[in-house]
Task: structure prediction
Amino acid sequence: MSIQVDLRLRQGDFARTIRFQSDVRVTALVGPSGCGKTTTLHAIAGLVRPESGRICLGGQCLFDAAARIDVPVAARRLGLVFQDGRLFPHLRVGANLGYAGRADAGDIADMAARLGITPLLDRWPRHLSGGEARRVALGRALLSRPAALLLDEPLAHLDAARAGDLLALIADISDVPMLYVTHDLREAEQLGATIIALTSVEV
Amino acid sequence: MHHEAVDRVADETVCRDDGMFAALTPAELAAIGVSLKVSGTATLFTLPLAFGLAFLLARRDFRGKAIVDALVNLPLVLPPVVTGYLLLLAFGRHGPFGQALASIGVSVLFRWTGAAIAAGIMALPLMVSPMRLALDGMDRRLEAAAATLGATPARVFTSMTVPLVLPGIIAGGVLGFAKALGEFGATAIFVSAIPGETETLPLAINAFLQVPGREPAALRLAIISIAIAFAALVAAQWWQRRAIAHRA
Result:
């Protein structure tokens, strides 16, 4: 799937231009902390409004400042896996997984089995470990049947074993294109991703 | 009006009062009924209005916000007698609301509906405050996360915003109900104390205290007031605990 991003983002006092494109299934945005990776991902998802530029995904323009296109977040159908998981605290794991409403009980059970979180379905998110919460967040995004999966440092703050397990699960995802943000080049390499080094141009 | 009411309450109960523990007299039951009806209605109708105002004040910036904020809180700082008098002016025969209601054949003067309006106005600031705090304190990033999963703004509101601030809504509801239950000054001025219609528990207690020898009746109603308020608090705590079960 093709991704074309050409953005000018303003954050407080300074603006940055981010420009890349990719035509492969797994693309990794790699760059040091604070270079605007997360903001770029949120802009693609529609949570941050760029100052100008355009974002096109698989032939559809989600944002084009010149053409006044700005597809609402809910209509973009992008599965964003947040760095902090952002599970809904008032919904049990099962309800979190099914929140998007595009999966039936069988789909949820299958996804839970695939991610190894079946025993957690009745738990409150508060009682999950960091690694468990990431898996639930990943499953929730996948069950929204997204056009693409946007992953924001999904292995951050996990110990080596948990991180390895989760990376293997992510590598197994084959049915949806991915944009994977990380500061660690090795993760991108293990996913066999096309690597885009994000060296933001500060203006 | 007021003294008439006192006389009636006294007349009805004078021959049956066997002291503290006698069964409730019809007059006492009427006061309880009026109180529950007035407070319940006031809470039910003011709650959505209060939440709308809390949402507006917490989430939106608009011209005149400071004025709206001050107006909402005005009943908190005005003497209740003044609020009651203003209501009388507004809903009176020549007042703007009074004329509007008269055109559809409704009057709230000296009616229990008027008592509910007075109670609702007095309760409004106490309801808005905890709801606004809850809205200010909630993690709005969860709303954004819901939107990325395809939730429409309406669904985000019902599935994220409302349940996440539910403890604040409950707290506001209880405070408002308690305030409505205890409202005295504005109600007395606005709709007077008509037994069976506008005479709520506090007004009835006041009436009994005006009559020599009726103190036991006043004490009984006071105890009933305490029981109702206590039951409301216990129920709210139970509901509150359920609302935050996920935090345990």
